[in-house]
Design brief:
This protein has four domains: 75 residues, 2-Layer Sandwich (Signal recognition particle alu RNA binding heterodimer, srp9/1); 161 residues, P-loop containing nucleotide triphosphate hydrolases (Rossmann fold, 3-Layer(aba) Sandwich), CATH 3.40.50; 71 residues, Helicase, Ruva Protein, domain 3 (Orthogonal Bundle); 171 residues, Peptidase M41 (Methane Monooxygenase Hydroxylase, Chain G, domain 1, Up-down Bundle). It is built from 21 helices and 14 strands. Strand 8, helix 9 and strand 9 form a beta-alpha-beta unit. The longest helix is centred in the last third of the chain and has 28 residues. The radius of gyration is 41 Å and the shape is elongated. It starts with 12 loop residues before the first helix and ends in a 46-residue tail after the last helix.
C-alpha cells in the first residue's frame, strides 16, 4: 500500500471558539465577583414615609441620600426594629418631589443631606445582556455544527460509524468456534492487510468486500468483532439502520461521509451489520426511485465500486436475509466473497461449548460431547445461552461447579421451555396427557428409521402439557420419503391414542400443533419435494414473494384450480394413510400403551431405557433421589437455606421439518 502524505493541519475553529468562550466567561465572572464584593453592604430596610417622619421627629436620622426626586436612602443614628428585623439603613419613597424647602428642614434637624445620581450596577448591566449572550451562543453553536457537517446543517449527514479504540477489550479468532471455513476466509483478508506484498507479487488484489451470510445466532457479528481484534488496522462499525433518518438524502450523505473517513484511515475495514436494512432489492414494490432507502443503496453501490477508487477500504457486512439483497450489491467487485456462516455440526457445537465453558468451573464427569450430540440444530448463541443458564442453575443450587445435571436442565430449559411446576392439572387432564404422549412414544419406537426416542414427559413446559422428544444420532441434512412418512405417523400417534382410549367424542385440542405440522410436511412433500406419484416431480404453488421487499407489487397465483384440487386430494390421501398407520400400531400394542401411560402418571418423566423396560413388561428401577449439593462456605453467623435439587433432564421436541425448510 503506498504511503499516504498527511494533509496539512487546518485551523480548528471549534477549538478556538471553545478557548475564547472559556476565557470570556472567566473574565466576566471575575469582574462580577469583584463588583459584588466591593458593593456589598448591610441590606437596607424599606420603610414608609410616616415611619420616616417619626424617626426624623425623634432625631434618629443621621444622614439621607437623595438618589432620585422621590426616592431617598439613609442611615439611622440608632438601630430601629422594623417588623422582626433590626436595621441601621433604610430606604423610602417620598409622596412628593424633593424641594429646597424640604431639604432645608432636614438640615435644620441636623441631618446630613447628600445627593447622588443613580448608576446602574454591573450585575444589572450584565443581566440585561444575558438574552443577547444567549442568542450569540446559539449562533456560534449553529455555525460550529455547520462547519463540522460541511454544507449539511446540524450535521445530520455525518456518519455514525464508531471507530474501534485501542483500549477496547478485543475478541480474537480464539474466541470463535464452529465456523472454521469462515475464519479461514477472514484470516486471509487480515493477512492481506498486514502483508499485501505476499499476494500482490503474483498479481492478486485486495478483496473489496466480504458478506457474512447465515441464520441468526451463528456468529456473524462475533466474527466481525474478531476481525477487529486481529486486524490491527482502523475498524469502523455501523448498523444498516443508522443510515436512515427522518430527512431525505441523509442516508446517502452518511454513506459518503463513512467512506471519506475510511479513505482518510486507509487501509481500514468498515463493518455494516444487518446490511439488508439498506441493501434490499430495488424493483417495483411499494417504493420508487425517490425512496430514501434506494438513494442510500445507490450511493453505497457507487462508493463500493464507482468511478473513484477506494483502495485500501474493505467493506465487511453481515445479513441473515441474502435473498432480499440487490443483485448489484452482491456482484464481484463490490462483495468479492460471500462467506456462509451456517449452523454448527456436532463437532462445531462441541468446540463452541468448550469456548464458552473456559471461564466456568466444571465438575468431574462433565461430557460436553454428549451435550453437543443432544443439541442438533442449535446455533452458537443458543449454546452460549445453555452454558449461561447452567451456571445460573448451579449458583442457585449452591454448587461450587457446574455438573451434567445443570447442563442437561439448562438444555431442556432453552430447547423446550421452562418447567411450569405451579400449573395444576386435574387427574383427567393428566391421564389424557399421559396417553397422548404415550401414543407418540409408542409409534416412534415401532417405526424403523426414525430418530431414537430420547425422553417423554407429562410435565408442562412452555405452552405444551407434555412433550415427546427424539434425538438424531447424527446431524441430518436430507430427509428420505420413508422418514417423512414415519414422522407423519408419529405426529398422529397422540390423537389416535386419545380416540382409542377415550372415544371419538372425547378427543381434545392438544393435537392441534401435531396436525398443523403434519399437514405442512405433507403439503411440502407434494408441492416442493416431488414425493407424490400423482403430482410428480413438479414444484407447484403460489410464489412466496413479500411485496414489501420490493420484488412484486401483488402476489400472483401460479396454480390452476384443477391442479389445486389434485394437490388437496393427494394431501388428504397421504395424511389419511399416516393416521391409519398410527391406528394400526397402537391397536396392536394397546396393552403396552396402557402400561406406558401408567408409568408416565407415576414417574412423569421417562427416558428411552425406561420406556423400553415398560414396553417389555418389566418393572422400573426405584427412583434414586439426587445427592444434595454441598453449599459453599458461608460467612460466620450467616444462615443458608437448603434448596431441593431440580428434577432430572426432560427432553422433547415436535416433529422436525424436512430439509429445505
Amino acid at each position: 500500500m503506498p504511503n499516504r502524505v498527511p494533509p496539512p493541519r487546518e485551523f480548528n475553529w471549534a477549538r478556538t471558539l471553545r478557548t475564547l468562550s472559556f476565557w470570556a466567561l472567566l473574565i466576566v465572572g471575575s469582574i462580577a465577583l469583584v463588583q459584588f464584593a466591593s458593593s456589598r453592604r448591610q441590606e437596607a430596610v424599606e420603610i414608609s414615609y410616616t415611619q420616616f417622619t417619626e424617626q426624623l421627629d425623634a432625631a434618629n436620622i443621621a444622614a439621607v441620600e437623595i438618589t432620585e426626586r422621590q426616592q431617598i436612602k439613609g442611615d439611622f443614628k440608632h438601630a430601629v426594629t422594623v417588623g422582626r428585623r433590626s436595621a441601621e439603613h433604610f430606604t423610602t419613597l417620598l409622596p412628593f418631589e424633593s424641594r429646597a424647602e424640604w431639604v432645608q428642614t432636614l438640615r435644620d434637624k441636623g441631618v446630613d443631606v447628600r445627593a447622588r445620581e443613580e448608576k446602574q450596577s454591573f450585575g444589572v448591566f450584565l443581566f440585561s445582556f444575558l438574552p443577547y449572550l444567549f442568542i450569540l451562543g446559539l449562533i456560534i453553536f449553529m455555525l460550529r455544527q455547520m462547519q463540522q457537517g460541511g454544507n449539511r446543517a446540524f450535521a445530520f449527514g455525518k456518519s455514525k460509524a464508531k471507530l474501534l479504540a485501542g483500549d477496547t477489550p478485543k475478541i480474537t479468532f480464539a474466541d470463535v468456534a464452529g465456523c472454521d471455513e469462515a475464519k479461514q476466509e477472514l484470516e486471509e483478508i487480515i493477512d492481506f492487510l498486514k502483508d499485501p506484498q505476499k499476494f500482490q507479487r503474483l498479481g492478486g488484489r485486495l478483496p473489496k468486500g466480504a458478506l457474512l451470510v447465515g441464520p441468526p445466532g451463528t456468529g456473524k457479528t462475533l466474527l466481525a468483532k474478531a476481525v477487529a481484534g486481529e486486524a490491527g488496522r482502523p475498524f469502523f462499525s455501523m448498523s444498516g439502520s443508522d443510515f436512515v433518518e427522518m430527512f431525505v438524502g441523509v442516508g446517502a450523505s452518511r454513506v459518503r461521509d463513512l467512506f471519506e473517513q475510511g479513505k482518510a484511515h486507509a487501509p481500514c475495514i468498515i463493518f455494516i451489520d444487518e446490511i439488508d436494512a439498506v441493501g434490499r432489492h430495488r424493483g417495483a414494490g411499494l417504493g420508487g426511485g425517490h425512496d430514501e432507502r434506494e438513494q442510500t443503496l445507490n450511493q453505497l453501490l457507487v462508493e463500493m465500486d464507482g468511478f473513484e477508487s477506494n483502495d485500501g477500504v474493505i467493506l465487511l457486512a453481515a445479513t441473515n436475509r441474502p435473498d432480499i439483497l440487490d443483485p448489484a450489491l452482491l456482484r464481484p467487485g463490490r462483495f468479492d466473497r460471500q462467506i456462509v456462516v451456517d449452523m454448527p455440526d456436532v463437532k462445531g457445537r462441541e468446540q463452541i461449548l468448550r469456548v464458552h465453558t473456559r471461564k466456568i468451573p466444571l465438575a468431574a464427569g462433565v461430557n460436553l460431547e454428549r451435550i453437543a450430540k443432544g443439541t442438533p440444530g442449535l446455533s452458537g448463541a443458543e449454546l452460549s445461552n445453555i452454558v449461561n443458564e447452567a451456571a445460573l442453575l448451579a449458583a442457585r443450587r449452591n454448587k461450587s461447579a457446574v455438573d451434567m445435571n445443570d447442563l442437561e436442565d439448562a438444555k431442556d430449559k432453552v430447547m423446550l421451555g421452562l418447567e411450569r411446576k405451579s400449573m395444576v392439572l386435574s387427574d383427567e387432564e393428566r391421564r389424557l396427557t399421559a396417553y397422548h404422549e404415550a401414543g407418540h412414544a409408542l409409534v416412534s419406537l415401532k417405526i424403523p428409521g426414525l430418530d431414537p426416542l430420547h425422553k417423554v414427559t407429562i410435565v408442562p413446559r412452555g405452552r405444551a402439557l407434555g412433550i415427546t422428544f427424539s434425538l438424531p444420532e447424527e446431524d441430518r441434512h436430507n430427509y428420505t420419503k420413508q422418514y417423512i412418512h414415519g414422522r407423519l405417523a408419529m405426529a398422529y400417534g397422540g390423537r389416535v391414542a386419545e380416540e382409542l382410549v377415550f372415544g371419538p367424542e372425547k378427543v381434545t385440542t392438544g393435537a392441534a400443533q401435531d396436525i398443523q405440522q403434519a399437514t405442512e410436511m405433507a403439503r411440502r412433500m407434494v408441492t416442493q419435494f416431488g414425493m407424490s406419484d400423482v403430482v410428480g416431480p413438479i414444484a407447484v404453488g403460489d410464489r412466496e414473494a413479500e411485496i414489501f421487499l420490493g420484488r412484486e407489487v401483488v402476489q400472483r397465483r401460479e396454480i390452476s384450480d384443477r391442479t389445486a384440487e389434485i394437490v388437496d386430494t393427494e394431501l388428504k390421501r397421504i395424511l389419511s394413510e399416516a393416521y391409519e398407520r398410527a391406528r394400526m400400531i397402537i391397536s396392536e400394542h394397546r396393552a403396552a400403551l396402557d402400561r406406558l401411560a401408567s408409568a408416565l402418571l407415576e414417574r412423569e418423566t421417562l427416558d428411552r431405557d425406561e420406556v423400553e423396560l415398560v414396553l417389555a413388561g418389566k418393572a422400573l428401577p426405584p427412583v434414586v433421589p439426587p445427592a444434595p449439593a454441598t453449599p459453599p462456605p458461608a460467612p460466620e453467623g450467616a444462615q443458608i437455606k437448603e434448596k431441593t435439587p431440580a428434577r432430572g433432564p426432560v427432553l422433547g421436541s415436535p416433529p422436525p421439518e424436512p430439509a429445505g425448510a
